[in-house]
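User: quick one - fold this with heme C bound?
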Amino acid sequence: MRREIFGAGLAVAVWLPCPCPAQDAAAIGRGHAIAEKFCARCHAIGMRDRSPHASATPFRDIVAKGHVENLEEALGEGIVVGHPEMPQWRFGPKEVGALISYLRSLSGKG
Ligand code: HEC
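Assistant: Sure. Structure tokens for the protein plus heme C:
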């Protein structure tokens, strides 16, 4: 439904800090894809899964601990966390925003 309009709007409105639901849903989707691609081999990225890497905090717990804001900054600077086992990436603001949206979505619904 209304695919074309949505798609066109997306290109323009991607990273305005706007809490509109449609944009959020798109960002959450992208964030989930990033998490799956880069993080899921160690971290649990969903609501119920277990972390494949025993000491990697499940993402839902990172959210529950309220670490999302720190993470946003850290990812933006290209520093994820200073853990030797954890590779470092440089994410652009788009990726960071999407990832954060996805993480936030883990705190809301059950
Ligand atoms: C190679 C395995 C691995 C991958 C891939 C990985 N992590 Fe981690 N991560 C870890 C481990 C292990 C820890 C626990 C570090 C510690 O206890 O010091 C951790 C910890 C963290 C923490 C801190 C958790 C806390 O309790 O505050 C955050 C945030 C985090 N990872 C985010 C990410 C994100 C975002 C990605 C994907 C972009 C990612 N990690 C990918 C292994 C990984």
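One thing worth noting: The CA atoms of residues 21 and 27 lie 10 Å apart.
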